[in-house]
Write a structure and sequence with these properties.
By secondary structure, the protein is of the alpha/beta class. 27% of the residues lie in helices and 27% in strands. Bound molecules: cytidine-5'-monophosphate (C5P). The site of cytidine-5'-monophosphate has 15 residues, from helix 3 and strand 9. Residues 11-221 are annotated as: Phosphopantothenate--cysteine ligase.
Length: 221
């Protein structure tokens, strides 16, 4: 029997949204379903990888029993778990839709309704992927996602470079059936040599296979 290609390889995957607390009962979140990241984690595990999946709040369940899942809530939680697990990983695929901003202070009590409007001050979160890109060792493979609405390729290439990635997976909101919530996605993969491959609209499980095939190439190159 042939050995699976990712046996003895540790891979870190992030998936889902983050929730940023405003007060004890409210948060700022986003519509990420976690489906793409969970599909990738399942595919990697099926290929023999030792997968750690760091997941924001999501209803998704992994199919592969071997996956080690770490549940987190906020961008700060996700950063902490990524940092704790990155040094050990041979590669990392970051699918999470991490909040770019978080409330500057979290109210200790529920904010009461008052006359007039309400302003919540936000501060920037840490870019997890960029932080890992700065820590990346020789041989580690780092893959990020970009969801864009305009100037897609230009922005994706800028992220690839700025975050020191080996590949970026672009999904455009201009493609019907692509993106956040659905069961399908349409991607373009751009590697650091700027080789570009565009795929047809597919089920997210099939998209995960395409991404993992390229990931294996990068890992073994
Ligand atoms: O810069 P942008 O948010 O578009 O980059 C998207 C990529 O960066 C995704 O792979 C996402 O998981 C990652 N990211 C991150 N931490 C952030 C913001 C984005 O890891 N704070």
């Amino acid at each position: 029997k042939q050995k699976l290609p990712l046996v003895n390889h540790k891979v870190l995957v992030t998936a889902g949204p983050t929730y940023e607390a405003i007060d004890p009962v409210r948060f700022i979140g986003n519509h990420s379903s976690g489906k793409m990241g969970f599909a990738i984690a399942d595919e990697l595990a099926a290929l023999g990888a030792d997968v750690t999946l760091i997941a924001g709040p999501t209803a998704q369940q992994s199919k592969q029993r071997s996956i080690k899942r770490i549940d987190v809530t906020s961008a700060a939680d996700m950063l902490r778990e990524c940092l704790a697990n990155f040094a050990n990983a041979d590669g990392c695929i970051m699918c999470a839709a991490v909040a770019d901003y978080t409330p500057a202070v979290v109210a200790e009590q529920k904010i009461k309704k008052q006359d007039g409007g309400l302003t919540i001050e936000l501060k920037k979160t840490t870019d997890i992927l960029k932080t890992l890109g700065q820590q990346k060792r020789e041989g580690q493979v780092l893959v990020g996602f970009a969801l864009e609405t305009n100037n897609e390729e230009e922005y994706a290439i800028a992220k690839l470079k700025n975050k020191n990635l080996d590949m970026i997976v672009l999904n455009s909101l201009n493609d019907t059936g692509a993106g956040f919530k659905g069961d399908t996605n349409k991607i373009t993969m751009i590697d650091k040599a700027l080789n570009k491959t565009t795929f047809a609209l597919k089920n997210k499980n099939e998209v995960a296979k395409d991404i993992c095939a390229k990931f294996i190439q990068l890992l073994k190159s």
